Amino acid sequence: MAGRLRVAGAGAGLALWAALSPLSAAAQGLVRVAAEAPVLVAGMEATADGYVESRLRPLREGAGEGRLYVVGRHRDAGNWYGAGLGFNPATGRMQVEIVRMRDGALTRLKQFGREAAADDRFYTVRLELNGTTLAVYLNGERITSVADTTLPRLPGGYGLYASGAAFDASAPVTGDAALKPARLALARAPQRVHLQAGEAAPRLPVSAFGAFRAADPSAGPGVATAANAPAGGAPFVFTARAADPALLRAEADGGHVTLFPLAAGATSLTLASVEDPNVFSVVDVVIGERAPARAAGYKLAGAVTPAIGERDVPYDTPLRLRFDQPPTLGRGGAIRVLRKRDGALVDTIRTAGEYDLLGYEGQEYRRAVRRQPVVMEGRTVVIHPHSARLRPGEEYLVTVDDGVFAGTLEGQPFTGVAATAGWTFRTRAAVPRGARLTVDDDGAADFRTVQGALNHAMRHVKRATPVTIAIRDGRYRELLFLRGKDRVTLRGQSRDGVVIDAVNADGLNPGSGASQAAGSPGIGGGRAIFLVEDADLLTLDTLTIRNSALRASPAGGQAEALFFASEGRLIAKNASFFSEQDTIQVRGYSWFYRTLIAGNVDFVWGNNRAALFEDGELRTVGDSANGKGGGYLVQARTLAANDKGFVFLNSRLTHGPGPTGNDVPAGATWLARSPGYETSWDHVSFINCRMGPHIAPAGWAGKGVARQPAPNPAVGSAGAGWREHGSMDLAGRPLDLGAREHVRLLTAEEARAQFGGRALIFAGYGDGRGWRPTPRRAE
């Protein structure tokens, strides 16, 4: 079916796309959908499972919000599933959504905010239906998913559903859910690039994954065969085109794109498959003016760290520049680190749009994240070079462009740091040895950053050899990553004195996240401060990890302090963890002993086996997003019916002010809510815990409470589901549990049989070998 079809106007009703069958993407035409009332353009009968995909473009016409969804399992106009975009032309706000239409009522099952581009670009949207799981993809990237059993799993129609403001769309295509979408993007990088006019042209790797059709490498100029061919071995070819060639010239070459910044301004770069118009990505490119440092009347001596000419500097050192008064960020520019012996550029650090690969150089999997490398601490600017760029035994030179910072030094306006200013330092030649490493942000130590020490442990210490990283008091503004190394202990000098603190959230680094191989497209390192993969017996002792993201901010929402994404064992003791939403996410087996965990929404959760929270505090804090809500403590997605899930033993449930100062109302907090999945278990137990007045009398947010789904199982039993025993108020007086719902109130005998000691709770570890941690010994 070729050409364009226009469907518009109120009361247009249901239009059958009668002749529609799966089309090659190259043959698709476009549909203009602009409806004041919902309009459905439906396809023919399809299978119950599969995908529906279309290219959608929100148009900035008219007023009011518009929505366009690709639709699957369509039974009639009032019953179907969909995924797509919501867009408001007035504000430019866009949302990626998964929805359900049931008996004519539309429910948004999942929403994910995205910044809409200003150039009316297309987005390839795919709805994947696989059993009870619904997933949405944007330009080949899996954005989010949800489980829903409301509508029957039956074959149905497919097509498009629109309401409100106008969209352009390609005719939808369908296929097997097992056939994942192809994706074309910059490798392990965000789809936004910051450059400066006239600087050296960067050569960036391009990645492609998925079911690309084989293409002719002789397709013409500006087309390249990528070095990292997708699964199946067939090469792909792509074009690289700048929207404004006066600002940017792009050349595709052997799996890379080289960008030549010609003049200051903003444009976009489109990477597009030659064979399939549904496979493309758009990279925003911002080009600033080049402003080298100017002659200055101030001296740097005493104002910079490392000091001028300093030797024996840890090779993960941040750079510090101290002003007369607190400075502000300027109009742009960059900080550069050059190797002094030959002038080679080692690192370029900008104040916006930055990303990093956490881990050591050459590591098979690294964590790719957006980050803020420049932070203000009073009158000091702290500049973090990219991970693992500096080497032992090298001398480096630092320059700072004019305009990066606005402030004064020695009473003079800051005009940058020129090469002639002589900000040089030499890194320590010897690599630390032994199983004990030290970290200090300003004193004598092996490393200046926690990640620097983790990189060393992963790279230079055998997997099974225990390593202790002693962290001295200080504030460490960094994201962390550990993979493939067992028996690592992070031990702080004091619990409140060692603070690992950064801002990370779903709007900045979407999803729970995972490490990525070298050829992976896009950014996937996730929203946690500390991501741990493939590690056993990690110990976090006497320290604080804080995710300072606000739920009220545009980047806010889900924001873990810790994501233990390993099937191994985690020990956290005498430690504190702060965030607002999803503070702790765990898999495998974990023991939290005398810890403080603070948050507001689902701030303990995960697809785990067994997690014991013993003699600790769970503090519900005021919600910055709405100023009043009490939220939920736990959302369990425990993997098996015989796993213990989340167990809270002899702990205190308290409340306090949140990051914007508001406290939690009485009776506004729920012990747990369910994700509503049939494939995981809601195993949550509170045993002999003291609870403040913020806990709701009904306790558990089951079906019928604030539109929450029923847990699995729907009602707890002695060995499964939601369970509670021995609950008290904060003064130790027994609570009246008569209003509790959806929960099994255990007898003392049942509580002892299920939770009578750590060995019983962790008995399932190692296929029944068990685990008996103690405060002095982890094994």
TrEMBL record:
UniProt keyword annotation of Hydrolase present: yes
Stretch forming the signal peptide: 1-27
Family (UniProt): Belongs to the pectinesterase family.
UniProt keywords, alphabetically: Aspartyl esterase, Hydrolase, Signal
Name this polypeptide is given: Pectin methylesterase
Annotated Pectinesterase catalytic domain residues: 438-701
Domain of life from the UniProt record: Bacteria
One Gene Ontology molecular-function label: pectinesterase activity
InterPro entries: Pectin_lyas_fold, Pectin_lyase_fold/virulence, Pectinesterase_cat
